[in-house]
Amino acid sequence: MEKVYMYEGFKKYLNEISSPTHEDFIALCAMYHPGTLEKIPHYIARKQGKEPIEYIHPVVEKYLKETYRVLVYKKQIISLFQEIANFTTKECNELCTKICQLMQSTLIWEYHKKFVNQGVLNGYDEQILEHIWYFIERNAIYIGSKAETEANLLRRLER
Question: How many CB atoms lie within 10 A of CB 132?
Answer without folding.
Answer: 22
